[in-house]
Automatic annotation (TrEMBL):
Pfam families reported for this sequence: ABC_tran (PF00005), DrrA1-3_C (PF13732)
Organism listed in the record: Rhodococcus erythropolis (strain PR4 / NBRC 100887)
GO terms assigned for molecular function: ATP binding; ATP hydrolysis activity
UniProt protein name: Putative ABC transporter ATP-binding protein
Transmembrane segments: 40-61, 112-131, 143-163
PANTHER family recorded: ABC TRANSPORTER, ATP-BINDING PROTEIN (PTHR43335)
Domain ABC transporter: 201-428
Family (UniProt): Belongs to the ABC transporter superfamily.
InterPro entries per UniProt: AAA+_ATPase, ABC_transporter-like_ATP-bd, ABC_transporter-like_CS, DrrA1/2-like_C, P-loop_NTPase
Keyword Cytoplasm attached: no
Top-rank taxon: Bacteria
Keyword annotations from UniProtKB, A to Z: ATP-binding, Membrane, Nucleotide-binding, Transmembrane, Transmembrane helix, Transport
UniProt KW Signal keyword: no
Length: 494
């Protein structure tokens, strides 16, 4: 299963469990109304069932009574389905039912059409079997008719289970709270997150071990509202593990993840937009249908999901590919679709694992602009990347992780100020090692007369220049601060 959909599937499972829980379901309705309605449905169902049994017995004497069974089916199916829902035994709920919802009767043509269709199927079956009985064995006609009616009755009892793929296929549906004014039903929200849409993501002392391997060791940092946080480290440093724990896909051995001061539970996870490093999409599914499906899993209505899909595919330059399957796209366009999947439900925080991998420069610029736009709306953005020049350009703060621990964290200027200074000298005639004797100076590289030196606080730049002039003419002598790439190399090598 694609990783980006693990939580969506779990959310859908939780919704089904919610609807299957009678005590929770009854909380949605005043208790006295629930009991009265269930009692009425049980009585109606009992009368219908007894009538069907009576017809089955009557068919032993006159098979023409079997003709009345389809009429009872029209009443039996919706009555049974309604009883299932009020009793909290309904099957799968619609996957978009992850917000505040209410239950109301559905009397539109679609639900009625399903019941009529089911009944017509049984009417045709009865007619064919009844006709065959008349033609094949007239003497056993009463027996055949009675057996037919009893069999049809049993099929009718099983039909709700066969067709209970969800309330939307029976006689009820889940609808948004804002779209109904029926005072009979009262909405009771799920245990959803009530924190601010723009909140700080806090990683507080999390640790994770895989046997003897320490993946994370008391890791702590935070991503503030409206901040783009660059999370960098070498392969295997613990970046992906941290993101999966933040999302709830993995559990930490110790420590806690909070969003807006609240622990990240199932309801908070719904507000997170996650983009995994590996492809987390259904390869054979069309782009537009997939994005709309994922948006509905996060609680958007069908219309809102479609609108969000159109908006983000247009913004990311893949509007013309919405009818293509994911596996037919280039790697760069697949990456754009993955970002759209993380954005389509308007998340409160973005967690992106290597979002710029495989993108051409134009796509990098588009994605960079999108992340900046989201941050300006107050959304915390955290992403990992090995493109350190891009991290340096985009991020407000950067954290460098190595061997599961945060080694350095701060703004780019703060990090660059922590490292040793750099002096680049271009002296064509200078031999290798000409600066080895200088105090506080380390030669980082020497190629074609161009020497890069690392200098600490004890080094004297005038002495360095004087030593270079002794070797011959000096064409360049440049003082510069270390780049993020330089600092990354120092941290990883330490």
């Amino acid at each position: 299963m694609p990783e980006s959909n693990l939580i969506d599937r779990y959310q859908a499972h939780r919704t089904r469990r919610f609807l299957q829980n009678e005590e929770t379901f009854r909380h949605w309705l005043p208790n006295w109304r629930t009991r009265r309605r269930r009692r009425m449905l049980v009585i109606a169902l009992g009368v219908l069932f007894a009538t069907m049994v009576a017809i089955g017995i009557a068919c032993l004497f006159n098979p023409l009574f079997a003709v009345a069974w389809p009429v009872l089916t029209l009443l039996f199916l919706p009555t049974w389905s309604s009883l299932q829902v009020v009793s909290g035994r309904q099957g799968d709920a619609p996957r978009h039912a992850l917000d505040e919802w209410e239950i109301q009767q559905r009397n539109d043509a679609r639900s009625v059409g399903l019941s009529v269709t089911q009944s017509l199927v049984f009417i045709v079956a009865i007619f064919l079997i009844f006709t065959s009985s008349v033609q094949w064995n007239v003497e056993r006609l009463p027996y055949s008719g009675g057996l037919l009616a009893l069999t049809a009755m049993l099929i009718g009892a099983c039909t709700p289970a066969m067709f209970s793929r969800g309330p939307i296929q029976t006689r009820i549906r889940l609808i948004p709270k804002s779209s109904t004014s029926d005072p009979y039903f009262r909405s009771a929200p799920l245990d959803r997150w009530e924190g601010p849409m723009s909140a700080t993501l806090t990683i507080d002392g999390i640790s994770k071990r895989y046997g003897d391997v320490v993946a994370l060791d008391n890791l702590s940092f935070e991503v503030r509202p409206g901040e783009i946080f660059g999370f960098v480290g070498s392969n295997g440093a613990g970046k992906t593990t941290t993101m999966r724990i933040a999302l709830g896909v993995l559990g930490a051995d110790s420590g806690e993840v909070r969003l807006g001061g609240k622990p990240v539970d199932l309801d908070v996870r719904r507000t997170i937009g996650y983009m995994p490093e590996e492809r987390g999409l259904y390869p054979k599914m069309k782009v537009g249908a997939q994005l709309s499906y994922l948006a509905e899993l996060h609680g958007l209505s069908k219309a809102d999901a479609h609108a969000a899909t159109e908006r983000w595919t247009e913004r990311l330059g893949i509007a013309e590919r919405v009818k293509d399957t994911v596996d037919s796209l280039s790697l760069g366009n697949q990456q754009r679709v993955q970002l759209a999947a993380a954005l389509v439900h308007d998340p409160a925080v973005l967690v992106l694992d290597e979002p710029f991998s495989g993108l051409d420069p134009v796509a990098v610029d588009v994605m960079s602009d999108v992340l900046v736009e989201k941050a300006r709306t107050g959304v915390p953005v955290i992403f990992s990347s090995h493109q350190l020049d891009l991290v340096e350009r985009l991020c407000d703060r950067v954290g460098i992780i190595s061997r599961g621990s945060m080694r350095e964290i701060g703004t780019v200027d703060e990090l660059r100020g922590k490292g040793d200074g750099r002096i680049e000298v271009f002296a064509p005639d200078a031999p290798v090692g000409w600066a080895h004797h200088l105090i506080g100076v380390t030669t980082l590289s020497h190629l074609d007369g161009r020497t890069l030196l690392s200098v600490d606080g004890t080094a004297d730049d005038q002495q360095i220049l004087h030593a270079a002039l002794k070797t011959g003419p000096v064409h360049e002598f440049t003082l510069r601060r270390p780049s993020l790439t330089d600092l990354f190399r120092e941290v990883v090598a330490a």
